[in-house]
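As agreed, record passed on underneath.
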Amino acid sequence: MTKKILFASIGLLVFSFAVTAFTNDGNSVSPKKTISVDSINSTINTMPFMDVYDSLHLDELNLGKEAYQFALQGFQKLLMSGKVKNPDLLTIVDFSQPSTKKRMYIIDLKRKVLLENSLVAHGRNTGGLMARDFSNQPESNQSSLGFYVTADAYQGKHGLSLRLDGLEKNINDNARERAIVIHGADYATEGFCRSTGYLGRSQGCPAVPAKVSKTIINTLGTGSCLFIYSPDQKYLKKSTLLS
């Protein structure tokens, strides 16, 4: 990824806002904020790494293209701001899929390799088979959407765990207070799915199968970007990283 390409992408975004911010006679207006995939496609498609989606056949692995596009958009803004340190790794959790699907994708953008594709749990009050309700509030037992950066790994009650810092104010910035971490869980298994019809649920953490949790945590490391996606209009309209 070159700085020229990054600045070109950001420049296109800035230009699009300038066009909508003024009428023909130069008077400023306040257009109603809307978020749609179609409205950003012309910019997103010029970004580095769009070809990774096709080259890795991520559509065949059920990752929605919209989720990938939004992930790239926020990821590159975070790189430019210095809030994400790892420019090669992007992790997407696609909550538009049922919990019985492997909806976590850890992608090495530089090498164009899918490093991990795993089951991942959502919060018990977020839904059953599908993730539908989200919250940033402590003790809500719900998942929070949006962009995170991975922090330090530690040994906790679930064994090796990875702290997450939420990067979106009033959306997921209570992650530390809520102890939202990546950890292994015995309920995050295909066997649990077969017996209940859905994956076991957490208290809001993106819990993964215990047998792969160490590998996932070590792969993510510190300073990499995690995006938890849902086609939830409240989130899509509120997120400043997707505007």
In short: Residues 1-46 have pLDDT under 50 and may be disordered. The two ends are 22 Å apart (CA to CA).
